[in-house]
Specification:
alpha/beta, Rossmann fold, OB fold (Dihydrolipoamide Acetyltransferase, E2P), 2 domains, 5-stranded parallel sheet, 5-stranded antiparallel sheet, 24% helix, globular
């Protein structure tokens, strides 16, 4: 399956170069090019996109500001003439940061990080999958989805908490792990926590319980949590608060 991508850039020459490069990579499929972040927002509301080639210095809303507005952004490769935003870009989990003018060799190196990622298995598990592999301790370790309780983030790695007090430490960001797991089985409740919906034993408007473990619900995730979880204490007819 091709990796669907878009270009977001206000410079026609830059768009022309990227289109040419993308056309030389069979695994990439360009969906559209957008001249600003607002065109891209409209497009993302209508179509599924796997990868964005994103300029930073754009009018009204720059590239990093644009990414911060997205709840679950696609993978991003920044394409810019400015070095100053590199740290901020990688804090946003960018795949790469390409400085213009961009050579095809440098472009291909960035794209290969997406197409041949070493984060885990190349394919995201389907809704019928019962396990996923993670790379840890120099090997691929099978983790059964129904054994995961929750996943906790610590900067550039995560700890997967499983049944029978087992843990697996993986060098990944929580954003990457979230994209690997079935969205209908796992729920992001906090910038540092991703939980198995089936393992939630109790919750209020501010926290979630998984067995004896209590995890906070982040303010920016509250609305999404309310939409997903039934019998929410804040909704009419919900269970009583503690």
């Amino acid at each position: 399956m091709a990796c669907k991508c878009i270009i977001v850039d206000d410079e026609p020459p830059a768009i022309k170069v990227l289109k040419k490069y993308i056309g030389n990579v069979p695994q990439l499929e360009i969906t559209a090019s957008c001249k600003n972040a607002f065109e891209a927002l409209d497009l993302l509301s209508q179509e599924k996109v796997d990868l964005i080639f994103l300029d930073i210095d754009m009018p009204r809303l720059n590239g990093t500001q644009f990414i911060r507005t997205l709840f679950l952004p696609p993978k991003v490769i920044f394409t810019t003439a400015h070095k100053d935003f590199a740290i901020e870009a990688f804090e946003l989990d960018a795949v790469d940061y390409l400085l213009k003018p961009i050579s095809f060799e440098r472009f291909l190196k960035a794209v290969n990080k997406v197409l041949h990622t070493n984060y885990s298995l190349a394919e995201k598990p389907t809704s019928t999958s019962s396990f996923v592999y993670f790379r840890a301790d120099r090997k691929m370790i099978k983790v059964f989805l129904n054994e995961i309780l929750y996943i906790e983030s610590f900067r550039d790695y995560v700890v997967i908490h499983m049944e029978k007090a087992r843990e697996l430490r993986v060098k990944l960001t929580l954003n990457h792990v979230e994209k690997l797991l079935p969205f209908n089985q796992f729920l992001r409740i906090h910038r540092s926590f991703l939980v198995s919906i089936d393992k939630i034993t109790a919750f209020t408007k501010t926290d979630v319980e998984i067995g004896r473990t209590e995890l906070p619900i982040g303010k920016s995730f509250t609305c999404h949590f309310q939409r997903i979880m039934p019998n929410n204490p804040q909704l009419p007819g919900g269970v009583a608060e503690r």
